[in-house]
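Q: A reviewer asked whether we had any structural model of the full assembly, not just the individual parts. We don't, so I'm hoping you can provide one. Inputs are below.
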Amino acid sequence: MELSERKIKILQAVIRNYLETGEPVGSRTISKYTDLNLSSATIRNEMSDLEEMGYIIQPHTSAGRIPTDKGYRLYVDNMMSEKIAELDEREKALTEREDILIEKVDKVETLLKNMAKMLATDTNYAAMVTTPKHKGSKIKFIQISALGENQLLCVVVSEGNLISNKIIEVEGIDNEELLKLNMLINTNLAGLTLEEINLALIQKMAKAAGENATLVDEVINAVTDAIKVNDDLEIYTSGATNIFKYPELSDTERASGFLSAFEEKNSLANLINEEDSDTGIQVYIGNETPIQNMKDCSVVTATYELDDGIKGTIGVIGPRRMDYEKVVETLRVVKKQLADSFRKKDD
Amino acid sequence: MELSERKIKILQAVIRNYLETGEPVGSRTISKYTDLNLSSATIRNEMSDLEEMGYIIQPHTSAGRIPTDKGYRLYVDNMMSEKIAELDEREKALTEREDILIEKVDKVETLLKNMAKMLATDTNYAAMVTTPKHKGSKIKFIQISALGENQLLCVVVSEGNLISNKIIEVEGIDNEELLKLNMLINTNLAGLTLEEINLALIQKMAKAAGENATLVDEVINAVTDAIKVNDDLEIYTSGATNIFKYPELSDTERASGFLSAFEEKNSLANLINEEDSDTGIQVYIGNETPIQNMKDCSVVTATYELDDGIKGTIGVIGPRRMDYEKVVETLRVVKKQLADSFRKKDD
DNA sequence: GTTAGCACTCAAACAACTCGAGTGCTAATA
DNA sequence: TATTAGCACTCGAGTTGTTTGAGTGCTAAC
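A: Here is a predicted structure for the entire assembly that you could use as a starting point for your response.
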């Protein structure tokens, strides 16, 4: 069977209506809702066809129709973007709010947390934001300083100005040694990635350090440890309880499952998908989602990218009948802003 | 009316039984449950009395009794600690597990997160852990280093070895100046609390810095900013979804309310109570809890204290019919362990 | 091809009924 | 006087039956 122009319009109407109400949509509603000027009977025939083609389904015999995953997919892929004007305005408003957000915050962690929160309040769905992941990020600068008698503070700054630190215990060290150590460490390690610190290099440095060889060893360990922390993927979430705004997700079992998955950050990591579409935005509908407990949800993720291949993910998770247009647009904006804001910090 | 020995035993039996089952407890059950060797009829009379006194209540006419807040309160205050032997063992097991936990982790944040998670899995309730709050914590050491052309990295270590850092933009500075600056900053600020950095001191330092006065200003700002971050109270939570294990909290409305409150860390801050009982453990039962949305829950909090008056809070939130004994004991252990683990880090 | 009309279906809401756990009271008992 | 057996009574929970109305599919007319 062919998907006629008219069928498309009807499908669109069914979906739009269902997105709003969450109730199965009947033929009479469509007959009034659209400008097709068709009677409910005609609509019924068309809907019957659409059901046969797998785009909509009846929850039970005497009910209206609701979209299937296939229906949503068609909608998302082909029928969405129309209200451009409205979105432009939205984008402006969002951008402004975020600018404020970013100005006020100088800790990456706080920035991302706020971003997640804003995303959640803005969309009324659950939101997640991951830290930008530095794949093989380079060491920029290392500073070792004495901290009391037997402790050294080791600060590592890596590309993107991510700072990490570690305290190591040592047996007394005087200032001159410290200076040498700093020099040695910096000249040898700056510019390298974690992977490039190999045994040969470590031995070379130990040799150069002479009697302080063991110390160098410890410091190198501290440095790699410290940098590893930055490689840790953190996921910030917000708005989990928004799901209670959608009755179809609010029953105890579903809610419990969803919230468990959402609390367990590990499972959220499954949503991170590097092979992106050209727009960098991915939409998973219902059963397409990689997380078992979210089969009744839809997930939209976007990858934000800093200059140098450093990537992070932002995502919104809501009911199948999520306002895809709004979510996609919001993510597009946030994605851009996030990238910009990091670039700003790097200057 | 007098609370006879027998009434106490019956009340205790009612509570114990209710804690386990969550179902109203009938007279016949008690008659078998206890070693009082009384018929259900007698128990009925006693229970009727207990109800009149306000310790238990009937949800409806033909149901068994459940404890009131007053009943729980009596139980918690006077009738609890009995199974000491068992707990000793528990303590050992817990302690071991935590030791492992602590060894493997060197980032405070991760430690606390893990702690919360453990607390939650262990008790099957929701758990929270706050960062230790450094009231007027002293600056221990400041290190300023050049980071590229126009940036300075400013690392502040404060008491308890909490490290914070900030990057500041400057107009070129050479090494010698930097050395002087470090000296100046350290001699003047080390040992002070945030409050002690006043205008007079700043002016004095600016004067000493001569042409670098504005720079000193900026650095001081960075230092205070950096230290403020540590003063921020972070609250880590875990196990929110455990509430779905208790049917009386699982209906949509209650769950939604609870989870919202739990997600909103601000509201959890209300649970932090500095005026502690002698044990440092606080029990809030039902309506006693300071958080509106948790009226159907009970909350047990404990304050852990590091050597120097630095305090944090850990807490467990569950249904009214929570296993108070177990929770109090667990908190007692974790409290101790947490304090120890920080002390270890400080050496 | 479209539409009006009508019989049919089925979930949701409501009412009626049953069942049983548990009570309170009374009268008998130790 | 305290305890207990016995019994009538209460009421929530679960079950069944009924009603209602939204919505369908089909047919015949336009």
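A: Points you may want to mention in the reply: The beta strands of chain B are 56-57, 66-67, 126-130, 139-146, 151-158, 162-169, 235-238, 281-285, 297-305, 311-319. Chain B touches chain A through 33 residues (CB under 8 Å).
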